[in-house]
Amino acid sequence: MTSKKTHPSVQQFKEFVKKHPKLVQEVRKGNKEWQEVFEDWYLLGENDIVWKQYKGDQTEDSSEKETKSKSDFMTQIFSAVKQMDMDTVNHHINNMSSTISTIQGLFDQFGGSKGSNQKSATASQHPFSFRKD
Q: Which spans does this entry mark as compositional bias, Polar residues (predicted)?
């Protein structure tokens, strides 16, 4: 395959779009078309005031929002831990522990007859034995 060399103005436009990622969003939303954006860029130039709204500050905004949400979450966790009554928490943990122990005891008690139940289950799956003559 032969590769075509793109026009230098197209290369410059691609670099411009990389610096202004909100333009891509506008085109994907259907608010603008690439031809229209290219013509405006070609006529107005790269340094026009129109392009400031499309600058790539969105990554900083999203990272700031993410750190704020993480800090809010951690603040909520710490406030919930501070409000807990440790005696009540200890009581619930002990109840859960005894419940788990009871369930494990039931499994151990009925676990011994599990092997014989498996043999009878396989026999009940094939009640008649057919053999080829």
A: 115-127
Question: Where do the domains of the chain lie?
Answer: 7-59, 75-110
What distance in Å separates the CA atoms of residue 31 and residue 38, rounded to the nearest whole number? Answer: 14
Q: Which residues have CB under 8 Å from 54's CB, separation 6+? A: 20, 21, 22, 23, 26
Other Cβ atoms less than 10 A from the Cβ of 31: the count is: 9
Tokens of 27: 């085109």
Q: Are 20 and 56 in contact (CB under 8 A)?
A: yes
What's the CA gap between 28 and 42, in Å, rounded? 21
Q: Read off the pLDDT of residues 96-121 as tens digits, 9 standing for 90 and up.
A: 999 999 999 999 988 865 555 555 55
